[in-house]
Amino acid sequence: MGRSSLYLIMGTSFIMLYFGIQNSSVSVEALNNSVSYFESTERYSIAVAGANLACGQIFLDNTWRTGYADLPFNGGTINVSLHDSVSGKVMVVSNGTYQGVVQTVKVLLSPSTFSKFAVYCGNVSAAAKLRDGDTINGAIHFNNKLVTQGNPVFMAKATMGSLQTSSGTPTFLGGYQTGVNIPFPDYTANANTIKADASSGGKYQEGGELWLNFISSGMVEYKTSAAASWSAPVTITAFAPNGYICINNGALHVQGTLSGRVTLGSTVSTGTSPTSSIGATYIEDNLRYHTDPLVTSSSTDMMGIVSAGDLTFQKIPMRIDGCLFTNQNATMNSTYKNQDPMKQIKTIGTFMARNMNSTDFGTGASKGANFYMKYDTRIESNPPSSFPFPATSSFEILSWFE
User: Fold this and answer.
1) How many CB atoms sit inside 10 A of residue 363's CB?
2) What tens digit of pLDDT does each residue of 2-25 get?
3) Cβ neighbours of residue 121 under 8 Å, at least 6 residues apart?
């Protein structure tokens, strides 16, 4: 009995000792895993902090390339370097070091350009309101202020100097940000290019009026006054072989259905101020693409209109396909009044105006037209030739690598 009891006690002790050792090993391993996870998280947090600090600096000053060297942060150090590419992109490399081990985060920044906006406006008067029935499907920027009345809808991010809401509640499905300043671009170089290219291999006219009616078969009719008869249709490639059409110190009137690619300019000579008949552009009726990009994303039809003076919509309802730019005012023919909210100016492309005044879309239900804007995503990679899409002097995050 005594020997058996001794064996039983020794066996039990051995078993308890074995499981105790095993439990201790598990506890040590769990502690090591916990410490390892903590250290890994700290290194990641330090690297991300360095990337965010660098991005913040470069957004404040797009020429900043100083980086950080051994910057103490949360028990570790931050080292950041910045590398420029020939395409204008900037790679931010942030190394976070903690307990002697390095974690790297890379951020690729790309120059931001005006081509990302469905609507951009430099200066908006208090009376120019976007209101009930107005919808913008694409990024927008109103440099001084966005004024709303009722319940307009903005389907992508909206940036602006300030937001003024006279009534109702605007809907920002992509969020909005105030206090953003993106000055209106200088279009002079683009206008000079359009004039030069129209003169050398396109269609150029000095003074007077130029009326264009595009035909879906890839042709165009033209005339030089409202009362004149349209010319016989001619192919666009014969009328303007390189796709540039420009009237200088005159007025451009355009309508029809485009099959092809063109850039239209209504320009002025240096020192000449635009008027209703000089440097002005009038969209007389529907201006469509033959192949609708909303239906066929591979459409190759593309139009750019660059106007030194006012860009005026001459009727409602109307649909406009293309990239629109005016260095003065975007307006609607003041003789039109709209009692029917179904009457709409629908634009597929992009719309850039230096100024937006009360006659653009009007105030109240008795003036103006409902405005629907849909961004044409093809623009970012294949915009109209010589259209004013310069960089905005800021960067956007293109990719984030961890």
Assistant:
1) 17
2) 566 665 666 666 666 655 555 555
3) 141, 142, 143, 330, 352, 353, 354, 355, 356
Question: What is the pLDDT at residue 175?
Answer: 93
Quote the tokens at residue 190: 């683009």
127: DSSP letter: T
Comparing 360 with 279, the larger pLDDT belongs to 279
- What's phi and psi for 401, nearest 5 deg? -110, 130
pTM to 2 decimal places: 0.76
Four-point Cα dihedral 290, 295, 301, 307, nearest 10:
90
The pLDDT > 90 percentage for the chain reads: 59
User: What one-letter code names the amino acid at 385?
Assistant: S
| Residue type (1 letter), 49 | A
Q: Give the Cα separation of 94 and 91 in Å (integer).
A: 10
Q: 73 is written with which tokens?
A: 């942060």
Q: What are phi and psi of 90, to 5 degrees?
A: -130, 130
Q: Judge residue 211's burial from the number of C-beta atoms within 10 Å of its C-beta, 0-12 exposed, 13-18 middle, 19 or more buried.
A: buried
> In a 3-state reduction of DSSP, which class is residue 292?
coil
Name the residue with tokens 């355009």.
254
Q: Per the structure block, which two tokens stand in for 106?
A: 């890379």
Type of residue at 200: S
How far apart are the C-alpha atoms of 209 and 2, rounded to whole Å?
123
